Amino acid sequence: MPKKPTASQRKQPTQSRSRQMVKTIVDSAARVLIDEGYESFNTNRVAEVAGISIGSLYQYFPNKKALIEELSKQHLLQIGESINKDTIKLKHLPLEDIVRRLVRSHIQLHKVEPELHRILSNHVPETSAQSWKNELLIDIREKLFQLLSQHAQTRHIKNLSLALFIVMETVEAVVHAAVFEQTDELINGAVEEQLTRLIVGYLTSS
Amino acid sequence: MPKKPTASQRKQPTQSRSRQMVKTIVDSAARVLIDEGYESFNTNRVAEVAGISIGSLYQYFPNKKALIEELSKQHLLQIGESINKDTIKLKHLPLEDIVRRLVRSHIQLHKVEPELHRILSNHVPETSAQSWKNELLIDIREKLFQLLSQHAQTRHIKNLSLALFIVMETVEAVVHAAVFEQTDELINGAVEEQLTRLIVGYLTSS
DNA sequence: GTATAATACAAGTAATTACTCGCATTCTAT
DNA sequence: ATAGAATGCGAGTAATTACTTGTATTATAC
């Protein structure tokens, strides 16, 4: 629509005033996405909802894309965190317990603001299927690899990387779909149950 | 951007001239999506690529959304068709053969213009997670239900609908991801192999 | 051949929106 | 207290773009 975006980075907030502002902006961005959808998401609206000036927004985010990316990044980091916590607790338990817990955590994470996660997973890749997102994903895959590879039951798997690729895509897709459809099965735990069975079966069979 | 779209339907093409034009428009829409991405997709550009007037486009499509929906519809119908064909050939074969064939067909379908399918699956729901898309999906689920439910090995499954929901989401996601990443595993059939194993294991276990 | 309907055209419009820039305010350090 | 840096403001701009409308062309019916 307008002038080309300046590819450059923006100022880092150093005073607490501005750090607060960045938080407000990001939160409002999420709110706008959730309440008004991706199509109506625009920087002017975000500034308005945040109760700040559009100029201030552009002081910290070089363009619209950067806002969305920040949200996506936060979500991926959150997932990584969750896996870390689970890893500590579960390292020595049977495979089934590990998988069930990972699945449950992932569902839990997506139960808050499911709409946001759906929008993010649909609309972020468009732009930078590149570096940082891939790095975070690889990091997550790495964590899972560590956690699973030391389990005797997975020793027989020729290509654990491929298996992990499939498992990750599967969990992500099913959880997104289930959370989005708000099915009863989600509430009563059937999805958790079935997903766990699906994955454990896959990881332990010939 | 401009005036609000007229929600009404547009003219049905009756002369062969105009039927050809509609085809050209739809094809060009796909081309623009593939070559220039969703963000740059706009009706003026589609008309230009199609070599026709923007006015003509709006004679047959009430708005931009309708163009995308038409493409999405065609894709879902294609999947339905593919399942129908497979059903005829496979009805009486063992479960594993059925699943493998369905998976293979689905991969095959997505190997042509993978980018298009990725964009469609990401950007269509935004608008009408409603009626027609759901109907087509339900129709597909129905076909699969018929095909699988008569197999002795699936008799023990308490909730075949839930199982199908999970299986469909899984296949869709893994195939999209694999096709998009253009992995070697796709080419040498490893993805087909693993997906089949995953699903057959799930459908035949406890 | 002519009237009528169907089809095609494309210049133009109104609205939206990403982003800038010059100025105002508030903080920090000395 | 004051300079200078950091932060904040928001009217304005340039570009994009979905869609309309009046007119021109082509097909069909009689």
Automatic annotation (TrEMBL), chains A, B:
GO molecular function: DNA-binding transcription factor activity; transcription cis-regulatory region binding
Annotated stretches, region: Disordered: 1-21
Residue ranges: DNA binding: 42-61
Stretches assigned to the HTH tetR-type domain: 19-79
PANTHER family: HTH-TYPE TRANSCRIPTIONAL REGULATOR RUTR, HTH-TYPE TRANSCRIPTIONAL REGULATOR UIDR
Family matches, as InterPro entries: Homeodomain-like_sf (IPR009057), HTH-type_TetR-like_transc_reg (IPR050109), HTH_TetR (IPR001647), TetR_C_15 (IPR041669)
Keyword annotations of the record: DNA-binding
Name this protein carries in UniProt: HTH tetR-type domain-containing protein
